[in-house]
Amino acid sequence: MPNLNLNDTFENVTKSIRDGGDGLRTILCHRYNYELFVHGSIPRLGIPGTRFTDGSRGVVMGSSTAFPVAMAHGATRDIDLERRIGDAIGREAKAQGANYFAGVCVNLPRHPAWGRIQETYGENPLMLGESGLALTKGVDEDVLHEVYLPHFRRIVEGGVASVMSAYNLVNGKWADQNGNLLTDILRGKWGYEGFVLSDFIFGLRDPVTSPRNGLDIEAPFIQQRALEFGQALETGQLDLADVDRSCVRSLSKELEFAARNEHSQPDTSVVFSVL
């Protein structure tokens, strides 16, 4: 937004928008709403980069389909419907030039007032008792594996190519630099071979330790890592092998999908036409 800085209060920001249309137009026309976030593209080497479009109600670009919230179609218990919606979103994402869709939310709702509860499919009845217990005493390792991880594991074992870390603490460690989650469990126990990227802006707490603990990409922009990696590599706080490993993970998936889609790239005529 124009003429605003980090010291502005919410009231000042709101007043700026009300007093003049520029701020509001800037928000409404921001590239988040109609352009891809591209990470690591090197055209001269044929590396497409990670071309990110957000969800979870569809592709947030152009005139793509806006599906009902996940809570609504999750209530149908119609797995085939969900598959068809996923197929439609996949085609529209490709038509809009994306190769990464960040819209599959399988977090377990812990409170009905959670602001993003509509993005998940609802509560599993078998988990209700365990969730109530976890709310009062915190999450221990048994409950973590019995309640909060099985649905993620099922998707990982189905061959998903990427995982997004969360903002929150898990057993006292930030999710984006939680080696137990991202390395020991995700890759060690589950055999995951894809890459992990942070949730946006505040999803990265410690850029230097995050590669070692399993976070591969900082999203949506090059921010903290760009500022700190150089010095950390020079001082030995960061091992180049950890950086290289993250690069290999993301590049291998980018090239895999680029090769797979080389002869099957639809144009925008598929939008609104695939269901």
From TrEMBL:
The entry's keywords: Carbohydrate metabolism, Cellulose degradation, Glycoprotein, Glycosidase, Hydrolase, Polysaccharide degradation
GO annotation terms (biological process): cellulose catabolic process
Q: Which InterPro entries match?
A: Cellulose_deg_GH3, GH, Glyco_hydro_3_N, Glyco_hydro_3_N_sf
Q: In which pathway does it act?
A: Glycan metabolism; cellulose degradation
Looking at the keywords, is NADP present? no
Keyword presence, Hydrolase = yes
Where in this chain does the record put each Glycoside hydrolase family 3 N-terminal domain?
139-201
Gene3D superfamilies from the xrefs?
Glycoside hydrolase, family 3, N-terminal domain
Q: Name one Pfam family in it.
A: Glyco_hydro_3
Q: What's its catalytic activity?
A: Hydrolysis of terminal, non-reducing beta-D-glucosyl residues with release of beta-D-glucose
Q: What is its EC number?
A: 3.2.1.21
Q: Name one GO molecular function term.
A: beta-glucosidase activity
Family annotation (PANTHER family): BETA-GLUCOSIDASE, BETA-GLUCOSIDASE B-RELATED
- Annotated family: Belongs to the glycosyl hydrolase 3 family.
For this entry, the protein name equals beta-glucosidase
The species this protein was found in: Penicillium concentricum
